[in-house]
TrEMBL record:
Presence of keyword Transmembrane helix: yes
Pfam families for the chain: Choline_transpo (PF04515)
Claim: Transmembrane helix is one of the keywords in the record: yes
Species lineage: Eukaryota, Viridiplantae, Streptophyta, Embryophyta, Tracheophyta
The protein's role, per its UniProt record: Choline transporter.
Name under which the protein is recorded: Choline transporter-like protein
Taxonomy, superkingdom: Eukaryota
Species annotation: Microthlaspi erraticum
Alphabetized GO MF terms: transmembrane transporter activity
Amino acid sequence: MDQIWEPEELHYTKQIVYACLPLFVAFPIFFNVYWFVACTLSSSCSDVLPLAYRILVLVFVFLIIGIIVWIQVANWHRIELTIHIIGVASDALSKNLKLFLVLPLLTLGLVVYYAPIVVFLVFARFNGKFVPRESDGEYSCEWKQDSWVPAYFALAIVTMLWSLAVMVEMQVYVISGAISQWYFSKEDSMPKKCIRTSLRNAFGQSFGTICLSGILIAVVRVVRAIVDNAREENPQGIVNLVLRCCASALLGAIDYLNKFTINFAAITGEAYCTSAKMTYELLRRNLLSAVFVETVSTRILTGIVFVLSSAYAVATWAVLRGVSNLGKDSYLVAVLAWLVLIVILAFLVNVLDNVIDTIYVCYAIDRDKGDVCKQEVHEVYVHLPISRSNRSPLIPNALNA
């Protein structure tokens, strides 16, 4: 890859990624050897799993590790590009650190909003009366809820799912609004109160757009859960197969159209349907893919989260074994530490992912207008491959630049 812009954040990004990449291989090797030795030394485990089967599993896991190494080597150029993309996103995020205060407050607001709904659900169960019931000539009393209680339960659950999806889209909107103001500002005039402006727009003129996007996401997730559950319960039948394929195609189309829609709405202030249409046309005109940005960067970030949390859990277990007498409880504490760190790092990665998506849309807008608002961003994102589905032999190769 050609020499491109390297901010200070990119230096630390390279250190983290290059330090974690070997651990992508080292940790599976460690756990693979550890369980093999532990099972061999344990009489109960070795009786259940004979030596031949243990060796077979050991070799199979090593083959998987070999495939992981091959994937890393084969995609090394994409890894380097991803490091630069993450570095650019980290630089943008460093200019809007207050997002790490605002976003948890939005989650806390959702919890406060849930509180009365949960209380009403609990008290709704007490609405009813005892009615007599006859069974084999014997009479007994049975509690019968009022007819409106099941409907209220359904309405409350739908409301909670919708509210959760709206909160997620609200966070995406706030992140996109703040980052886009940074992107389109001049270097010497960083906008003030950009997060406050984004919040005001989210709860104001774009609230309906966010609610519509939230209900679409909630419906997609519910339908996808129903389809997955139906596949597990009744996997056979040509009719079920056709219905599942149609549902998957429809849900995939909605996900494709919804990708970057809220980002674009936060940048331009357009309504949901207009934003979805304009985003699709924007990416198609500029031969940009709607899925590439999230493929490599998300996998690397997810791997880093897993590696760092696993290293932290192993270190916690080692310290507890050395300074305490918890015994087997040290494993439980290590697992809890692993879960807590994964939640924290997953939140950070989610924010960074949204920043990457927002910068991608801003770059597409710049490219569409023939403008360059952030030269350093263009120097990185210009290396992204164009969309193959929109490639035309009549388009000159100069458009790739």
